[in-house]
Design goal:
With about 550 residues, the protein is mainly alpha-helical. It folds into two domains: about 280 residues, 2-methylcitrate dehydratase PrpD (Orthogonal Bundle), CATH 1.10.4100; about 140 residues, 60s Ribosomal Protein L30, Chain: A (2-Layer Sandwich), CATH 3.30.1330.120. The chain is built from 24 helices and six strands. α8 packs antiparallel against α9 and α8 packs across α12. One of its GO terms (molecular function) is 2-methylcitrate dehydratase activity. This is 2-methylcitrate dehydratase. Keywords: Lyase.
Amino acid sequence: MFVGRRTCSRISGLKSTRLFSTSYAASTARRSTAIFSRTSFPRSYSATQQLPRAAAASFSTRASVMSAHIPPSTSNEVDKVLTDIADYVHSYKIDSDLAYDTARLVFLDTLGCGMEAMNFKECTKLLGPVVEGTIVPNGCRVPGTDFQLDPIRGAFNIGTQIRWLDYNDCWLAAEWGHPSDNLGGILAVADWLSRTYKAEGKPALKIKDVLEAMIQAHEIQGCLALLNSYNKVGLDHVVLVKVATTAVVSRLLGLTRDQTVAAVSQAWVDGQSLRTYRHSPNTMSRKSWAAGDACSRAVNLALIVKKGETGIPTVLSAPVWGFYDVLFKGKPFEFQREYGTYVMENVLFKVSYPAEFHSQTAVEAAKKIYATLKSMGKSAEDIDNVVIRTHEACVRIIDKQHKPMTNFADRDHCIQYMVSVMLCYDRLETTDYPDESEAAQSPLVESLRRRISCVEDPQYTADYHDPALRTIPNALTVTLKDGTVLEEVAVDAPLGHRTRREEAKPVILEKYRRHLAPHFPEQHVKSLTDLGNDSAKLFETDVDTYVDMYIKK
């Protein structure tokens, strides 16, 4: 099926770049024609001799025959996807006040989520240097700790903190994800550079530089996700974190536009994470450090290119060996819009509950139903069943009615569990997910969870994908054991949605304050929140000075 395929012809407007070696095409041709000459026959056999039956059974020439029929590429042109990203990062001027103000809120919220994760030993055990006791001169600092690390390991640490509780921002499209995950790489590099610059007598980077990089990373990850579903081919969305972080830290590190193209190409060719660890029966905690891993890989790749490594010009479109043919079923990426500030301006905040975002409106509806039951003198014990009218992505990701809840990762990605906890306790908190929690051990929560079912509403799915709406709707209908059917409670957009942004702002800031409170004295928490509310002062604060405010001995 690969014969004659020229996937690269599907990508229009390819540009060339001097960064890639001009010997690329020639070397590719030599490798292609040499395939048969390198076929691994044992020395004692000629090509005309018959292999023993056992050896023949385990030997296949399929790949070699296939390769021989593929014309070697002679193009030095670069995939337009790569050059578009690099051009955006190096040339686009961000002048959107809304984008910067939203980035400020995302920045504070994300750091707060990282601090909250420090209360969980399953997270903290993964943090620190690879070799215990290592202190890197001018190294980046890790909030909530006294670690001083190289930027690669620092990116893993900060990225893991940020994502651990699944409580930072969210972007929902053909592919979902959490663009603020990129802060793991951005902050590690910016802090390390700032400390290094100061040691050399140069000015540090400012927090506004971090926010600019965040806006760009959000845009790259979000636009690549709008029309392209990586989960449908089994890939985890952190591939987009790796690509976006690589692009923006390349600029922070002083790479040229062409070097950024090369670095981004390396991110696409790097082995991509599978979604296996996000789905039953293999759900486990890697989903909480996958973004940290992606951030660290991104920083590493950018630094490798900074040292002079080149790139892979048709890493996406190369027939057979490119990303499209190997991992994307031969389909090139589609784009809804050019890169700008759209994603940051429309990103979703997880304000109310530490719950996978497709369940946020369902949990909000469940809270209203709890109040209704209470007013009737009833409780979750009186519920016979619950039907959730929802959208397709919710069904595919977190509909786990009959699957066992064996760990934290199972529970925070099960809509039935989250709704059941709210109906039983009128709450949903991070402490409701661990094995030893009251909710996890409750027979009522488990019994009710198994009586909550999901039904897809095609209109809800359409609204979810509509660029003008981008809602995450859920509607709950509760039937009581006496046969009473309560009126359906529907919620289209969660509190963190763009249409409810002003309503959410004070709640976002209170969430940030709440996450800082267990770690710092009250006056220090006030200093951080006051600085976070003063945009002008925050933007002009040195990155290293700001990060030092989060250090704990």
